[in-house]
Amino acid sequence: MPRSEDERRGRVRRSDTHASAKAAADQLVIHGVRPSVNTVREYLGGGDRAIINEALGEWWQELGQRLSIAAATEQLWYAIQEEISRQLGASSVPEKATNTGRLHAELAAANQRIAQLETAVQQLAKAKEKI
Questions:
Q1: What confidence tens digit (pLDDT) does each residue in 96-106 have?
Q2: In the structure, how many helices (H) and strands (E) does the chain have?
Q3: Which pTM value belongs to this model?
Q4: Inter-CA distances, 64 with 37, 58, 59, 61, 68, Å
Q5: How many domains, the chain?
Q6: Could you report the per-residue pLDDT of 12-54, keeping only the tens digit for each?
Q7: Three-class secondary structure of residue 31 per DSSP
Q8: Domain hosting residue 16, numbered range
């Protein structure tokens, strides 16, 4: 348990720097820059090198999992599109109208499930940070 207000603020700052470093790494990659302690520190306008280094280590470890989820999401999207095309191609015009509505509902449900899974992964990553 923290002994003073300064210690509590220090822990908050550490947590903020840690989370900010991971977010900065994401932004740097989007802009084609390889995240490093120096590039993240520059992006943030400062920060403790040790905390940034620790956060980047976790960020690199989590990156593979995040990419796997993105790939699975893309595969699911293409599978849904193929199934929609297959079902629409095999239907009469009135059936196509009925199937289209149903398939759109299924697609919306699948997209919602993907969003839920992505949120769950993010929550697991946050929980892992706290451990």
A1: 666 677 888 88
A2: 4, 0
A3: 0.48
A4: 19, 11, 9, 6, 6
A5: 1
A6: 366 688 899 999 999 998 899 999 999 999 999 999 999 999 9
A7: coil
A8: 5-130
